[in-house]
Amino acid sequence: MKKTTILLLMAILSVSCKNKNGIHQEQKGDVVKITEEEALNLLHTWTNAYLAGDVNSLNEVLDNSWAYSGSADGKVSDKTTTIEEFSNADYTFHNISYDDLSTHIYGDIAIVRGKESMVIVGSSGEDTTKLRLRFTDVYQKIDGKIRAISTHSSPIID
Description:
Pfam families: DUF4440. This is DUF4440 domain-containing protein. Residues 42-145 form the DUF4440 domain. This protein has helices at residues 2-16, 36-52, 55-61, 79-87; strands at 62-69, 76-78, 91-106, 109-122, 128-142, 145-155. With 158 residues, it is of the alpha+beta class. Helix 2 (36-52) packs antiparallel against helix 3. It has 4 helices and 6 strands; from the N terminus they run αααββαββββ. Strands 2-1-6-5-4-3 form a 6-stranded mixed β-sheet.
């Protein structure tokens, strides 16, 4: 009787440690950790998309749930609105750089904070804007893909 009970418990534990695809995993769950390198690679992919005017890459970087807060009017922008504005912009990004970067990993979530400096040039080539921002990005690794799920920024006024 005791042997049967132990075997039954082992069988239950074995089934509970399999994910929906039948792959055996530790009981801690299906969380696949994101690494600091992966998080910083996403930041640089995002930067390169802006510099190149690459809408397709930007679409891959941003999760469908992504939201941006930090605009002067207090509104929150979503992925669709941001990509539409980016596609129709009458300006280009000429330089984007970062300093004071820090990355914190929480399982499948990475929080990247830092200072961002950018130079934006209007289509005429004469209207140049220089911005400095303090930002916080939140990235998540889902099904092996890392995407931005939230961003907040505040202007740095010298």
